[in-house]
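Progress against Task 2.4 (sequence-to-structure conversion) is shown through the following example record, which the project officer requested during the mid-term review.
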Amino acid sequence: MSLVLRRLALGDEADTIAAVTEMAAEGGHWSYRYRPDLPWADYVALVRGWEEGRDLPGDFVANADLVADVDGVVVGRSSLRFELNDFLRTLGGHIGYAVRPQFRGRGYAKEILRQSVELLRDRGISPALVTCDDDNLASARVIEANGGVLEGIVPGVAHIPKRRYWLS
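Structure tokens generated for the chain above:
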């Protein structure tokens, strides 16, 4: 598989806007922090600054928003959190990931998560906490396929329980 996790780039604008639209049509989200009000170059610079903890929104922690690139096409994304605040420690975890709807079922989510765990391990973060909605069986299978060990199920937001997994 030729999937590569990489930093957001200036050439990713069209794919990112398409991904935001596609995910919204499903009732989901591409990124909680997408800023369509900013010129694209400013947004890319902002996202890159978050890796060093600069200009973080609200109670966010230092993080890397990466895109999953397959042959020049953004098929998904990963958000790596380098520390855990109270929310992330309970419900969000170290890693958030998504695959654009038309690219699902090809193993991309499994590879995005695998590479995400490696990148965190390279930064000295292991094990990594990953969560998913209790009813998101596809995500649970991806996490388990990557060796995730279920710690338990906790109450989540809007009465949707969350599964908490640890990956080494």
